[in-house]
Protein: DoxX family membrane protein
Amino acid sequence: MNGTLLLRIAVAIILLTHSVFGMFNNGINDFGNLYLNQIGFAPFGVLIAWSVKLSHIVAAILFILNKYIKPAGFVTIFVLIMGIVLVHFQEGWFVVGGGRNGVEYNFLLICVLLAIMYPNGFKSVKTKD
Structure:
């Protein structure tokens, strides 16, 4: 059993729940129309919102299958960083408690994704002399 299995399943559950519910309650379309289009992504806000959520679903499946972990991780980290830049940074650090809607959750997910992508740490490539 791979040492990252528990983390991969946990991240997959988070990505799936964060995506699938928005497909059925119009949340993705609302995010695209009422947020992304309003901050300058018009007329592509809905397309971007759907692309983000579909990337989450694909990444979740890949994490469960333990396939293409690094590409799935890089795409998801990019989405999380953009979420920090566009939404969460202005709200501060805390998601709840000392604030609301801050960056701490995305920060933790990025760290977990890096741990999944690099379970043995970041190793430098050594060349032969």
